[in-house]
Design brief:
Elements: H1 12-24, H2 26-29, E1 43-48, H3 54-65, E2 69-74, H4 86-95, E3 100-105, H5 110-117, E4 122-127, H6 133-147, E5 154-158, H7 165-176, E6 180-184, H8 194-201, E7 204-206, H9 209-212, E8 218-221, H10 237-244, H11 248-251, E9 260-261, H12 274-277, H13 284-303
Helix pairs in contact: 1-13, 3-13, 6-7, 6-13
Bound molecules: phosphoric acid mono(formamide)ester.
GO cellular component, one term: cytosol
EC number: 2.1.3.2
Function: Catalyzes the condensation of carbamoyl phosphate and aspartate to form carbamoyl aspartate and inorganic phosphate, the committed step in the de novo pyrimidine nucleotide biosynthesis pathway.
């Protein structure tokens, strides 16, 4: 039984195989082929304890285009809101006889915990401030389709690093694929312990976005996660935009063909100006589209083929 909990679970060869399968899924995305039968008879539950637009709907589309039955459960409207524990919730839904669980939870490590309780594949769709591995896969896949090999390419990740699982998974996959990554944040949103992590993992850190952007072959802007800043956030919104936002003026610092990524949802006017979000070099919607292909690929790799005990 395999899970996808962290980018640490994947070798460079695994990532290559996932990208290869994702590329094969584009015929389905173009609707030239309506559905593939790979997961016929399989049931996948999307169990979301945190809100989502992109991840949940793309996992649902991905499962359905592979002919799986997909059930969505969100914490709001489930018995979790009556106080049912995470363990009881996942044991209850899996007792119904499902084949795979896609889970998002606000607690870092929740997906790892759940994987230890279950004997079906678990896919981490975001756990707190820890990891979001399918986001990292779709970001790297989008970049590779735009830039070719990422070996030696300079990629800037800019924003609220402290609260970002997109950053934590993203920096892992991009360095694994040989990219030269610099992460940029104001001092108050730079994670503690990043000095030793960046040294060990081989990426750079900076507080100065204006010196990083002109060199970048691509820039990934991150969302300011107000919902994870219970004590208010500093810098203020205005200071953040002036110091770190991808404003119209900063857009002019970028190479004209450097892709601009943002995982969404975007705070337009805070970390990214409309001029940048909607620029010709923005690949925000390519990321969404790649997300379906990547999630089809992940579901295929983890769930296709005979189950244990099934006739081959
Ligand atoms: N990027 C991302 O995870 O978006 P959602 O929260 O809408 O799923």
């Amino acid at each position: 039984k395999k899970h996808l909990l962290s980018i640490d679970d994947l070798s460079v060869d695994d990532i290559g195989a996932l990208f290869e399968t994702a590329a094969e899924m584009h015929d389905v995305q173009r609707r030239a082929v309506k559905k593939l039968p790979a997961l016929r008879g399989r049931t996948v539950i999307n169990l979301f304890f945190e809100d989502s637009t992109r991840t949940r709907s793309s996992f649902e589309i991905a499962g359905k285009w592979l002919s799986a039955d997909v059930i969505n459960i969100s914490a709001k409207g489930s018995s979790a809101s009556k106080g049912e524990s995470l363990r009881d919730t996942v044991l209850t839904v899996t007792a119904m006889g499902i084949d795979g669980l896609v889970m998002r939870h606000s607690a870092s490590g929740a997906a790892h915990q759940v994987a230890g309780w279950l004997d079906i594949p678990v896919i981490n769709a975001g756990d707190g401030m820890h990891e979001h591995p399918t986001q990292a896969l779709l970001d790297a896949y989008t970049l590779q389709r735009k830039l070719g090999s990422l070996e030696g390419r300079k990629i800037a990740i800019v924003g609220d690093l402290t609260h970002s699982r997109v950053f934590r998974s993203g920096v892992k996959i991009l360095t694994k694929l040989g990219a030269d990554v610099t992460v940029v944040a104001p001092p108050t949103l730079m994670p503690s312990g990043i000095a030793s992590w960046s040294k060990d993992a081989g990426f750079a850190t900076s507080y100065d976005v204006d010196s990083v952007l002109p060199e970048a072959d691509a820039v990934m802007m991150l969302r300011v996660q107000k919902e994870r800043m219970s004590g208010g956030y500093f810098p203020t919104a205005r200071e953040y935009t002036v110091g770190y936002g991808l404003t119209r003026d900063r857009l002019a610092l970028l190479k004209p063909d450097a892709p601009i990524l943002h995982p969404g949802p975007m705070n337009r006017g805070l970390e990214i100006a409309a001029d940048a979000a909607d620029a010709a070099q923005s690949v925000v919607l390519d990321q969404v589209s790649s997300g379906v292909a990547i999630r089809m690929s992940v579901l295929y790799h983890l769930l296709a083929g005979p189950n244990e005990g099934e006739a081959k």
